[in-house]
## 1
Amino acid sequence: VSRLTDRLERDLREVAAGAHPSPSAWESIAARLGDDEGSEPGLVLAPAPGRSKRPVWPAIAAAALVVIIGSIAVLTRVGDDHSISPPTRTRRWSTSRT
Amino acid sequence: MMATVGLGAEPDPATDDRVAQLDALYRIEYAGMVRLAYTLLAINAESEEIVQDSFVEVYRRWHEIRKPGAYLRCTVVSRCRSALQRRKMRPWPSDEELCVSDQASDLWDVLTRLSQEQRMAVVLRYYGGYAASDIAGMLEMPAATVRSHLRRGLSTLKKELEE
């Protein structure tokens, strides 16, 4: 294994030597710093070291629960409004018989 | 002895003069980060773009981060990982484009056939010189998983290179 890892280190260094970092890269970066000064940070691709990932599902589940409960409440109210109330029967009882 | 890429002195993030501090970080880290990105991506322009974007990201978040150098390395590796995921359907640059010796070319061929996680773990360990726990932070996976990727990657490399 150590022969393999020695070869890996050597060959990967050879591959890396093919990179040509631009000598004027700082000018490109510095030119972008002014543009980005006032802007809000965009999509964060890398988390800060040590920052834990928060699961999204509890928020989604809570939102879904609110929607379901709301829907049930609205449907119940609508059902109550449209329900046929029993007609008020007015019976006339003749109190006097002829 | 294997050198560790980008573990130089950390500039002081508490200073308000962010540009001067970023310039200091640039002098320490830029070339090493481009070489690391190039060893992961094998395309010079893409590697430079990713590293430059990462420096701008560090500048934006300067007051929120404690270790700009560590944040820069995580950002570079994370962006390389995203670039590799987008690249899945595209072929790797050939070894002629890489301009390396026959021996390094053989190794590169096998390396490009490893899974993305195995390849990244192997490059970060044996070119970057990072410990499994550091790689775990960069790739957002447990250290045990990194060690497993390293073991499987090395096993495949050994088998393929000895044939």
## 2
Amino acid sequence: LKRLIPLAAIEILVWALMLTVLFLISRVAFAINIGVGTLADRIATQIVRTSVSVVIVVVWLLAWKKITDVHFWRAIARTNTTS
Amino acid sequence: MLDLLSAASIASVLTISFLVTFVATPIIGEAMRKRGITGRDVHKSPGVRLPEMCGVAIVIGLAAGVSIYAIVFPSLIHETAAFMGTVLIAGTIGFVDDLRPLNARIKPLLTAVACLPILIFGTYYPHPPIPFVGPVSLTIIYPILIPVAIAVTSNAVNMMDVMNGAMPGTVSVILVAITAILLFSAKNGTAALSAALLGALLAFYYFNRYPAKVFDGDTGSLAVGAALGALAILGNIEAVMVVALIPHIMNAFYGLASVGRLYERREIHERPIRILEDGSLRASTAKAAPITLVRIILAAGPLREREIVRDMIFLTLISSLLAVLTFGITLVGRI
């Protein structure tokens, strides 16, 4: 279990961050409104909303990668020191 | 609510797909062995070759279960046709890939095409429910995201299929949670499709668990991954499925991020793990090797293949529990 606890913790952290990201997307990205009058306006609104959402998701993915990288290389260093 | 007929149908579908896959797997395995379609079990001592492409048995079992359900409930024919169409296209791409390996960039594009039946039958609801927020309207962008979803799920499951029993073991855990969620949402039709896949995978797990007697090949893993994507879309549980698939997405994402491009396992020269003399596996310390979930698990020290798969299943159990929690939060958000 010792080796799984940090990984489960990363999973839970990533999940919590994901919920935060979804909340941010709903409050920030979906608040953007270019207009709904014409089809072009509606398409533009959805493209901008999606683009902003993608940026937020990329930040989430980078944070996820950073956390895992730090955990992985620390664990490798610890194992090498022990052995 | 789940009425008696629906409950009996779902139980029957699970049993039929289990039995058909259980009978078909050794037959297909033998047929593949006779034709020389075998693959090396890379984490065992050299010389062990097992029949490949036995994931065909999963697709056959799934088709049997789903067909019975479509006969009993003909009103759900569009849903079942969209689901099976997606699975069959992804399975066919996997079949071709097993026979003649596809380019790492072409494969995700081809798997995206597997979503066509969903688009043709229009069996999607472009208002995915988001935790804390409720359903969001994505009427224009949603159909564009469907191919992406199918490509991501099918390739993520494919990339997790690296050890004996890892794919059927982890996906079965996810399907238990997903079936329960769909039943609770009164989406009995989609729950039956999920139960059929669960039955097929449980039967396949028996033959694929350590020490494996057969491999599912890309035929099985791409079909199963596409099926998960289709279930998320048909059941309108997109966010829940993303959470359930966290270990699979983790594995695919770390691999892609560390290599910096789409890659095939056979293209990687610096392997992420090494086999020790006693048969256990150790994480590579090479910077150039891809960081996969197995390598992260092994970072804390060597393990045997069976123990690694047990850990992968444990992590999927955690993500499945989080998926149930996510569903609960979404439900509360709607109320």
## 3
Amino acid sequence: MAKGDLLGEFELYVMLALARLGADAYGIAIRREIAERTGRDAAIGAVYATLARLEAKGFVRHALSAPQPVQGGRARKCFDLTAAGERALAQSTSMLSRMMRGWRPRRAE
Amino acid sequence: MARAVPLLARWLLGAAAGAADRASLLADLEEEAAAIAWDRGVAAARRWSTRQAIRSIAPLVAARAAAGLSISGSTTMQIWRGLRSDLRLARRRLWQAPGFTAICVATLALGIGGNTAVFTLIDRVVLQPLPVPRPAELYRLGDTDDCCVNGGLPGSFSLFSYDLYRHLLATVPEFTQLAAFQANVRTVSLGYPDPDAPVETLESAFVSGNYFQMLELAPAAGRLLQTADDAPDAPAVAVLSHHAWTERFSGRPDIVGKTVTLNGIAATVIGVAPRGFYGETLRPNPAEIWIPLSNEPRLQPAARLLEAKGSHWLYLIGRLRPGVDPSTLQPRLTAAVQQWALATLTLSDDDRRQIPQQHVTIVPAGTGVSSMRDAVLPSLRLLQLLAGTVLIIACANLANLLLVRGVARRTETAVRVALGAPRARIAAQFFVESLALSVAGGAAGMLVAFLGARAILTLTFRGATTIPIDASPSPRVLGFAIAASLLTGAMFGMAPAWFGSRSDPIDAMRAGGRTSSDRGSRVRRFLLALQVAMSLVLIACAGLLGRSLVNLQSQDFGFRIEGRYVAAFAPSLATIPADQLPGVYASIQERLRAVEGVRNVAFSLYSPMSGDNWSSVITVDGHDPAERLIASWNRVSPRYFETTGTPLIRGRAIDERDRPGTPLVAVVNQSFARKFFGDTDPIGRRMGFALARGGGNRVFEIVGIVGDAKYQDARAAAYATFFLPFLQEPRPPDGVAPKLGRSHYPQALEIEAAAAPASFAADLRSELRGIDRRIAIRRVLTMQEQVAGHFNTDRLIARLATAFGAVALLLACLGLYGLTAHTVARRTREIGIRMAVGASRSKVLATVLRSALAQLSLGVAIGLPAAIVAGRLLESVLFGVSGHDPAVLAGAVAALAAAATAAALLPARRAASIDPVSALRTE
């Protein structure tokens, strides 16, 4: 496995958010998911930049949704994991969990 | 209600994001901001979205940079892309109309080039620092140019005696070096120990031993002067300028260490100054050889200055230690000068009262001593003003041309507007075209500037053998040309961009581009009137300056110019022992008169209009000895007044009778007689030089009166002058033979000749050499050339003003032609109809001409008062013509009217030859 296929930390968050959100994964929703779960107030631009990078790597793809059923509703740019993305996510998370096995954070004394 | 996302946030995010993401990114932000606004209020939403936008910039830009995507799609990128395509389009369009483009570029080249040429001169003469390390550290003591030798108490000290220089050296340790140098350059005779080698002359300057150390210059060959070279008993040495080394010694390295003679004194050439260094003062014919001060008494024994404590002849420049405030030195130097004056000089009571006024001013000297700068700066400013006017005219002209072009392109513009092109883009495109033109014009202008600056330099330094500056453009000049080009483009591009983009699609697209409304036509008329007015101002100025030059040159100088020649003696003449002089002087006249073509020969201390003058305090019969009377004086040989063509009014001229031992005589000019004797007869009255303490012996008897002649200032009246014979000197009371001062050595030779053969100068030289090897002359000039040399600046200004005036006239005609031709083209149908219903061709011609002349009259009406104001401002440089000279103004109007009529006649005749049938058919 090439080094470029490893996921960075924020990329991992974005991919995990994608995997959880399923069909509803679009920019601001991903940001919200990360913010709510980790407490990290990511910039929307960072999410988009990461998505673009992942798409360039072939891990995610996007499609425009049907317009929202409200007046002036817009088409959202929805993202989805590709098969390669699924594999990369599995690989990265399993590496992480193997590394973490048996490790406890030290207590502050 | 305020929007949940502030505009700034939208703009920031939009600019940072790529085109692909921009819409959804913004929509996402809006969505979340709306939710926040619902929960926590609009203000919170706005704060949040602004923070989001700002924090998003870095990751977005970084991602795009990393992805290797260009920043395409962003606003700046769009503008840049648009600009590039506009430039491409402009280039294509301009190529398509080569005639139009050529006219525009030529107009701009003249306008920008003229300005840049004048600026080149300003740069070289005024702004350029000396070619030495850290010129900003150099400061000069004194701020006036009181060249060349002064006595007494000047008030503000700029010249210093050697003794005073030594005194000041000890006063100001803040100078790492304080150097002294001669205020002017003097000619020195350079010879070789071999007695048969020819004697050359060089421009020389005496400098203190630390002169080059102060400037921190490195030698091009050998070594430069050191303090030890300036010791009283040091062997005589000299340093050559690089220019003299290459020109006179063809750059031979073996010149270093060679022994030469300077005014007959053996000296060793120890080195060559660096290339491009012409001394501390910008002047025509700069110093070619630098000699330590200690050699001065030996080299000019007749005019020794070094030991004369009260003779001020040196300028002082020092290098200040970093961090020292020069203004703190001023009071100390002033105190030192006053203290020195009290301790050293012999002072009268009146002098003592003046001691508190004696002071020294310290000025920056990074650009050297500024005598020439101060002299030519007003002229350069005037020229820059004239050149600037031409540029404005050129701008008006180009704006008009482009406006007309914009009208012609109206249909095309209309189509673009109809298809949805934003007006700003269309305006930008017009503007870019203007800028492209101005940049091309600027590039061509650089060439014009280089040639122009070289021509201007040659005119400025006419008659000089060495010109210490060149015309190659410095970075400052390049910057000026670029700025001028862009500014010009912006100036003339504005109106066409505005009106070009204003075309109404409906108006323009109907009826094949024919329309009743012609937007911008009033602007065009205004621009043309402005052009005509400014051209009139320039032509009038050129007329006034030309007239003034003619008046200056053709005035009655009080001596004859035709058939008169002058030459300057080399200073080696002054090394001839006094007892040989009577014989030598007699044979100069005798032998030269035998040269073919020569009618009369004379010599004198100064020749007419040589620019030199010697004034002294005198005492005259009929005046109180305590009265301070000042007059100019000169020593002349027999037949001098005949030879120069100065008329003898009464009495007798100086002739062969006036020898050493015969009664002392003087001849005075009319101004002298009027000034000191009023209505009484001066002949037989007596006069003499005043003594330092007042009074004096009136030893000279006035034997004749001659007409007034000008010697120094062509604009001023002739000075009151008295003439003395050579070699006559009052016998001192102790009865020993009088010592001859430097006034007894003639500096000028005057010849009257019927027609000078080609070998004239050579014949004169060989005759003089036959008398004594030490008698040599420099260039033989016609009196015409000597006189003309005084008007270099006036001639330069007059010529350039004429050139600028001609360009302005040409541009005004082009403008009028263009406007008239455009009007005729637009009115083709109307004229056709008029002719079809019976208007005669002459009537059509008259109609078109009348409208062109109305345009002209408007311009003249604005220009005439402006020309009178400009003339008033010029009055200080004018000679013999007033600033509102009616003849000049009338001539300017007539020239403009004639040229304009010719320019309008062409399109008018075309209008008159319109065939009504075909005109009506153009639908």
## 4
Amino acid sequence: MSNMDNYNNNCDNNNKDDDNNRILLVDDEVDITIVYTMGLQDNGFKVDAFNDPLQALSDFKSGSYDFALIDYKMPKMNGFELYQEIRKVDTRVKVCFITAFDVYNGDIKKQFQDSSDSMRQEGKEDSDVKCIIQKPIELDELVKRIKEELNS
Amino acid sequence: MASVAAVVLAVSIFSYQYSVLTSNRIVDIASGEVRSNTRIEAHDISQILTNKLQTVGALLQTLADSPAIHNNEYKRADTVINTRQNSSTDFTDFYMWLNKDGKINWISNINQSVYQKYKGADLSYRPYFIIPKQTHTVYYSSLIESNDKIPRLYISYPVLNKTGTSNNQGRGILTGVVVTSIRLGTLGNFLKDQLYPQFNSTIGLLDRKGTILYTTGTQQYAGENIFGNKFQSVLASSLHSSDSKNLLNDLIRDSLQGNTGSKDIPINDKVNTIAYQPVAVNGKDFLILYISAQHNVASDVGALIIQQQYFTVLMVTVIGGVAFIIAFLVFSWNKRLEAIVKVRTGELKIANDSLAESNQQLALSNKQLALANQQLKIHDKMQNEFINIASHEMKTPTQAILGYSKLIQRHPEKRDEMIEAISRNASRLQRLTSDILDVTRIETGSLRLNLEKFDLNQIISDIVDDYRNEIERSDSDVKLIHQGGNEIIRIEGDKNRLTQVISNLVGNAVKFTTQGSITIKAEIEKEQDNKALVSVKDTGSGIDPEIMPKLFTKFVAKSNAGTGLGLFISKSIIEAHGGKIWALNNPSLDGNGRSMGATFTFNISLSKSGDKVTH
């Protein structure tokens, strides 16, 4: 476990010169952050991974990331709340949510929509969260999705 | 009932009033009839009498004009006179021929000896001689008492010689007077015969001086003046009311003036109509005729009508009585019906009440059903949520396994770590699967207990041994204490399931305790000696007060490594054994208010038999 964490940290400063590849990853499951970080790093992304959303928020600086991959269900602060806080600081960063919930299930979908609506009412322009990635996902597929989002 | 009586009474009164009205009207009509009949009869009979008297007068005139009389031819005159007498014998008493000096020349209707006796008798003092002699006109006498005491009326006619030198009146010289007489009795009989046979009336005749000539029934007043003391005293005694007497006298006075008329006068308590009519002969009022008729018919009709009234009243009363009886019958029948209806209504009410009760029960059942339905919906929602969360929980280790499996090919240098990670996630998945299966069993009610008798401390001992080994393998210095492990606490239950519960509790304690101790104890409950208490006390982080109320529900208390289902499953297993499970944060001992870990406790029934348990 400790080795994996090291790996996670070691990857932080890779490929600094390459634009448009800095990724913020927030997920409370350690195994998930390890797997996703490794998978993304293998494809040339620079990844900052956090298991605690509050930690992620406190370390967040505007313009530090091109892309944020945020787990929806987390203790202390859910993905949407974190997203809202990030948006207050950085309006540019592209965001995808990642969740093990079935997004096609009515209840979960409603939760997403409600969160989305509340953001729209607050006048956030980039409030329409369309990008939801469902767990489990093949690492190659994950990379492909993120690249699509970045180029869109 | 009262209304029926009122109707009967009203009908009776109305009927009586109507009868009175009708009877009065009928009496009026009948009286009117009597009045008009009386007047007509008076008029008719007066006319008949006039005609009769004129006929007699005419006969007398022809006699006076006959040559035999003129020539004093006695023998022939006798024949002529007798002829006249024969032709009017029903009415006239006799004919008589007086010479110019008032002496009897001839007299009819008497035998020779009587004739010889009266022949030459001087009657010149008689008005029936004097008046025609002076006036040369016909004379109608008043009542005259004759020599033979028979009351008679006389009519006389002058015999005038017109062929001789004319006298001062130019009607010739009086050579004699012819006279005829009418007996009052004959006149009375004649009049009586003229009365209408179907009309019950009486007749009276006065001369124009007021002398009574004839009255029906009796002749004793004939010749009396009507205003004389004798008749007036009779009137006073027979007419009870002085008004009636005055009325009658007024009537007679009026009639003596030559007037025609009629009046109603009560006589002997009965109304009589008296009609009067003058009998004028040759334009001279000679006699006054009276017709009197009692209003018998009217009073008969009245009596009949009163009878009718009584009959009507009787009929109405009888009908009313019958109606009353019918009404009474209907009323009592109604009462009976009412009573029956009342009974039925009561029965219906009872039925209704029980129906209402059933309804109420039904409503209650419905309510319960609605509640059950709601609970079912909630349950359904919870089930749905459970599936969502369970699916979420299962996808997370799946994602890890999937990721590591991919990465292991690209990073062979981290192969061991990754295999361990895969193994860890796989076992998490296995636990999760097992727990989800248990939850499903619990929630579908298909959790089966394999009951057996065993010693609680024995399974605790085994569990403690397992965890002690685990703790020893880690760096933790937490002590695991099995308190009172030598006491045999024999219970009957599912050994595997209870092992699962205790293991879950100890496992949780181990997870949340980084230092201090975990004490596991089984004992007989002090208050209820038929129960055993099992407690797991730790010195860990304690239970978050926020999740305390929902501690034993699914996915609430979740550690990194746990499934979040353990306490729910433990609670269900204990409850399936008839026991209870609860958790408390330990009271602070160090004085700084920090929780000193938590204690989980459950109770379970002891085995009833005191059989020994072999170790």
